[in-house]
Design brief:
The protein is mainly α. α1 packs antiparallel against α2. The relative contact order is 0.10.
C-alpha cells in the first residue's frame, strides 16, 4: 500500500498520466452529485417521517428506493474511475496490483447502503457519501468484493450519521490509503505475506490484521506469489550490488562499479511509486536493517 495524495490532485489538475478535465466539466459533475445527494436526503426525510408515524412498511419502501437510486446512478462515480487510477499509475490502492487483483472498481471507503461491524451487526450505510468523490477509492475487484459493506469501528469510536456527522472523529479498522499514517502500517515479509509493521501498537496491529483478512491481501493466492517474485528479484539485486561493492577498489579494480550501478538502478525501478508492488521492494530493503541499503530508497 502506497499513500495516495488525494487532497492535492483534482480532476482539473495536470499531472503525469492524466489529462485534466476542463473546469466546466468538473463543475457539471459536482452539480449532478449535489442533485443526487438532495434526492437521497429527500428520501431519507420521508422515511424518517413515515417511521415517526409508525409506518415502518412505508419507511422501508423509501430506503429501498434510496438504495435503488444509488445503484441506478453508478455510472456517475464511474466517470471518475480513470482519474482515480491515474493517481496510482493504474494500481489498486489497497494491493498495489494491476492485473493481479483482476478488473478494477471504484470502491466506496465508507459503505453507501449498509455498514457491517466485526460481529456482523448491520447499521445504516453512509448513503450521503454515495456521490462524494472524497469517499471513492480505486480498488481491484478482489478486495472490493471481499470488503462489501464491512466497516467496523473501534469499540470506543464515535459513529457518524446523517443528522450527526462526524466522519473525521471515527476510528475505523480499515486502513485508508489516502492517509499516510495508515499506508505506513502495512509491511511485507519474504514469503509474500502482508503483515503489520514491526513497530505497530496493539490497535494498529488489529487494524492491519482485520484489513488483511477483509481485503483478501493474503488469501488471494496470486498476490503472495507475485510479492515473493518481487522480493526475490530485489534480494538478488541487493546481493549482486553488495558483492560487486566488496570487489570494487578505486584505481585498482574499478570494473565492479558498472555492476553496482546496474543493480542500484534495478532496485530503484522496483521501488518507484509507479512500480507494481513497490512497497514489497521497499520492505525487502528495510528488513535488512542496513543503513547503507536504506539510502537506496530514501
Amino acid at each position: 500500500m502506497r499513500w495516495i495524495d488525494f487532497e492535492n490532485k483534482k480532476p482539473t489538475d495536470a499531472f503525469e498520466g492524466w489529462t485534466p478535465w476542463p473546469q466546466d466539466r468538473w463543475q457539471t459533475w459536482q452539480t449532478k452529485s449535489q442533485r443526487l445527494r438532495d434526492d437521497l436526503i429527500r428520501l431519507y426525510t420521508e422515511a424518517e417521517s413515515l417511521k415517526a408515524q409508525g409506518d415502518t412498511v412505508g419507511a422501508q419502501a423509501r430506503i429501498i428506493e434510496r438504495n435503488k437510486m444509488i445503484d441506478d446512478n453508478s455510472d456517475h462515480w464511474a466517470e471518475l474511475k480513470p482519474w482515480l487510477f491515474s493517481l496510482s499509475s493504474g494500481k489498486c490502492w489497497f494491493t498495489e496490483g494491476r492485473d493481479i487483483c483482476s478488473h478494477m472498481d471504484v470502491e466506496h471507503f465508507r459503505p453507501k447502503k449498509e455498514a457491517k461491524g466485526l460481529d456482523g451487526a448491520v447499521r445504516d450505510g453512509y448513503w450521503w457519501l454515495a456521490f462524494e468523490y472524497s469517499n471513492f477509492r480505486a480498488a481491484g475487484n478482489v478486495p472490493n468484493r471481499k470488503k462489501g459493506g464491512w466497516f467496523p469501528l473501534h469499540r470506543d469510536s464515535q459513529c457518524s450519521t446523517y443528522t450527526a456527522r462526524c466522519e473525521e472523529s471515527e476510528a475505523p479498522y480499515l486502513l485508508d490509503p489516502t492517509r499516510q499514517s495508515d499506508a505506513q502500517l502495512l509491511a511485507f515479509d519474504e514469503e509474500g505475506n502482508a503483515i503489520p509493521t514491526p513497530d505497530a501498537d496493539e490497535w494498529e496491529k488489529e487494524r492491519v490484521e482485520e484489513s488483511i483478512k477483509r481485503l483478501k491481501l493474503n488469501e488471494h493466492d496470486a498476490l503472495p506469489q507475485e510479492r515473493r517474485k518481487v522480493w526475490q528479484q530485489v534480494s538478488d539485486a541487493i546481493e549482486g550490488y553488495l558483492e560487486a561493492k566488496s570487489r570494487y577498489k578505486p584505481g585498482l579494480n574499478p570494473a565492479p562499479a558498472t555492476t553496482m550501478e546496474e543493480k542500484l538502478r534495478f532496485i530503484q525501478r522496483c521501488t518507484r511509486e509507479d512500480a507494481e508492488l513497490s512497497s514489497v521492494a521497499i520492505w525487502c530493503i528495510r528488513f535488512r536493517n542496513d543503513a547503507k541499503l536504506l539510502r537506496l530508497v530514501s
